[in-house]
Amino acid sequence: MTTKPSRSANPDGRMPLMEHIRELRSRLLKAMLAILVGTGIGLWQFDRVWNFLQKPYCQIPQENRLGKGCGLVVNGLTEGFFLNLKISLIVGVVLASPIWLYQIWAFVAPGLYQRERRWTYIFVAASVPLFVGGAVLAYVTLDKGLGILLSFVPHGTTSLVTVTSYLGYAVAMLLIFGVTFELPLFVVILNLAGVLTHARIRKSRRLIIFGLFVFAAVATPSQDPFTMLALALPTVVLFEVAELIAYVHDRRKAARPDPYADLSDDEASPLDLPDGEIEDGERV
User: Fold this and answer.
1) Which of 19, 84, 171, 173 could pair with 138 in a Cys bridge, judged by C-beta atoms 3.0 to 4.6 Å apart?
2) Mean pLDDT, the chain, as a whole number?
């Protein structure tokens, strides 16, 4: 009977195709089990989570809401049941994110070079607070966008807002703000990889900023001016920070001596690189 080689004895993750498939299945099962446990916790704490999610809607003026209280409506007999499942599943995915993200990383990491792993660490370390920051901003401004939308309801009428439509709007806002805050990070990663230079960023700077405002106007579910500015202005600030990082990186890169500067176009480059230029089988 053959045993599966451990990752400590096999750091490169070399194994037959069937072993890769078995490992993928094992990691998917672990991730799904973690999400299932998190979903159970979401069901247990559903009331607290729902009160937190509906709070922005409860803050809009009373004349824009139906009756007393928050005024959200449930349509049909099964909508309340599926609402519990949907919110609990969202809570489960969020709570289990450290586990399923680790399972993805543990499966992919052995096939990466050390430099690629460093970039991944940088990306994860920066992407999590950026996404959380965007989601927090979306939550803070959620009631403002709702108030603007409901202000167009004709006088003497009341908007009948279902919990499903409100939840879809709230989740879309949180995801769009969180993902948009990641865009400047991709600019930094492309610059570090040598794909996008600071000179090209500076040349297209006005077009990029204009594109960010257009994207904010189209991507926000409410598409009102306040929500658009709440998304576009912080994203532009983050883009300016990304451009500054690209500028510093390109200056440091230009200051390094080029080992092939004295070679003519017809002369072959040396095969033996200087000490310190190879690290774990790749150029550094």
Assistant:
1) 173
2) 80
